[in-house]
Design brief:
This protein is α/β, with parallel strands linked by helices. The chain has 2 domains: 361 residues, no CATH class; 55 residues. The chain is built from 11 helices and 21 strands. The strands form 6 sheets. Strands 1, 4, 5, 6, 8, 10, 11, 13 and 15 form a 9-stranded mixed sheet that branches. Strands 16-17-18-20 form a 4-stranded mixed sheet, covered by helices on one side. Helix 5 packs antiparallel against helix 6 and helix 7 packs parallel to helix 11.
Length: 436
């Protein structure tokens, strides 16, 4: 194990990524029209951090998520401009359901190439800006709890109330350069009936905490929120959304006022692509029966004057999904597996584990519980969003996350071995970075 490092430098930068009103919002099938207003702006923020030997960059964006392909493009651009290895950059999203439609999700709003390209360009820009504004800093970490989240699935009732807060302070002036908050909860206080652009409760957190501390930037890394919704429910008013954000802000500020531990040690990053596997498809004959059933349901919905546009949209998406599967099976191109990236960033005794999807709480707990003497943060929607990553137990119920949501991501159903693979890979990466 390497000698303890005491000297860090860091730089931050932020940019507005709010699209023009009129774009489709993403996250709910119930939406039937474009956005018609804005509650608050969306931001992308970058933190560059160095121990003098290694540099890592963490990006947080107020978006539903980015596709792995989009993340790779951003990382490649950064690599060409800076020479930094691609795997030193972790790009996360808060998963707001009131931001622009983007490629990881299909059928939930029309994504615009122009919007996506602007986001990519701006993220690259803030990473470059953060790297140019490095200053000597000290890093502190603290933990607390929050009650804003609740498990939205009847079983298993996993819940992780742990709230992690990182504070980065200028070594000379003692001014707060950045705060990073990590907690797992779906940003869906504003539901499918909302047509106004918003970062949802994470946006409130960034504003409230930033203003209270006069911090240059506040970043929110959503955690393992695949099965966690706001305790107040989904589809509430903007006033309710702000109250949830204020409650979490109060919890964060409580941690910042309490006893925090100084972070010391090397900056190390390591990434690994691992294969996760899909269930075998039905036979062509079985799929055709299913296709005909979905077609009948879609035609019935279209002919029903009482059927909502959302009902018609879902019915057609199911039909389209099965039609695609039939073609893939006929051509012998039905996918068997998927290369999923797990990313580990170590800062002394602090670890940030990036998982590219809507990860269930039990998976995060499976990683955290093995490393209790360290500070382990799980960042969901990191380096892409491939859909739900459920626990093995969740697959038994064949619910929305395991067997229906893949439609919106254009992927087959994962095998329940995905939990074991993700947990084992994350644990292996932590062990490897500890040896550096």
């Amino acid at each position: 194990m390497s000698k303890i490092q005491n000297s860090y430098s860091a730089g931050v930068a932020a940019v507005d990524i709010t699209p023009k009103v009129g774009v489709d919002l993403c996250g709910f099938a119930a939406r039937t029209k474009p956005s018609d207003g804005k509650y608050d702006n969306l931001k992308a923020k970058a933190l560059a951090l160095s121990d003098g030997a290694n540099i890592t960059v963490i990006v947080a964006s107020d978006l539903i998520g980015l596709s792995p392909e989009t993340v790779k493009d951003i990382r490649c651009r950064i690599n060409k401009l800076t020479g930094l290895p691609e795997d030193c950059v972790m790009i996360t999203s808060t998963h707001t359901h009131s931001g622009p439609a983007l490629p990881p999700l299909r059928g939930l709003g029309v994504s615009l190439d122009k919007v996506e390209e602007e986001i990519k360009t701006k993220i690259v820009k803030i990473v470059l800006a953060a790297l140019k504004k490095m200053e000597n800093v000290t890093i502190w970490v603290g933990t607390g709890t929050s009650e804003i989240g609740a498990n939205r699935i009847k079983k298993p009732l996993d819940i992780d109330k742990q709230l992690y807060v990182i504070k980065i302070v200028n070594s000379g002036s003692k001014k707060v350069l950045a705060v990073i908050a990590n907690y797992g909860c779906h940003p869906v206080v504003l539901g499918g009936g909302n047509y106004k652009i918003s970062a949802d409760y994470p946006g409130v957190v960034q504003k409230v905490v930033g203003k209270r501390l006069s911090a240059k930037t506040v970043m929110f890394l959503n955690g393992t929120c695949g099965d966690i919704n706001p305790a107040v429910g989904c589809g509430k008013t903007v006033s309710c959304m702000r109250k949830v954000g204020q409650e979490l802000s109060t919890d964060i500020l409580r941690v910042l006022k309490g006893k925090m531990k100084k972070v010391q040690g090397p900056v190390v990053y390591k990434s690994k692509f691992v294969k996760v596997f899909f269930e075998k498809p039905l036979s062509t004959k079985e799929l055709m029966v299913k296709r005909d059933l979905y077609r009948q349901k879609y035609l019935a919905a279209r002919a029903d004057p009482k059927a909502s546009d959302a009902t018609k949209k879902v019915a057609y998406s199911l039909y389209e999904y099965v039609c695609r599967d039939i073609q893939l099976v006929k051509k012998g191109k039905y996918p068997k597996d998927y290369n999923l990236e797990i990313h580990a960033v170590r800062i002394g005794n602090l670890f940030i584990i990036g998982i590219p999807g809507e990860t269930f709480t039990g998976i995060g707990l499976g990683i955290k519980n093995k490393w209790r003497k360290y500070n382990v943060l799980i960042a969901g929607y990191a380096n892409g969003d491939i859909g739900y990553i459920p626990t093995k137990a969740a697959f038994r119920d064949k619910g929305y996350a395991t067997h229906s949501a893949p439609i919106w991501y254009g992927l087959p159903i994962f095998k329940d071995s995905i939990e074991r693979i993700v947990v084992n890979t994350a644990n292996s990466l932590i062990a490897q970075t500890l040896r550096k």
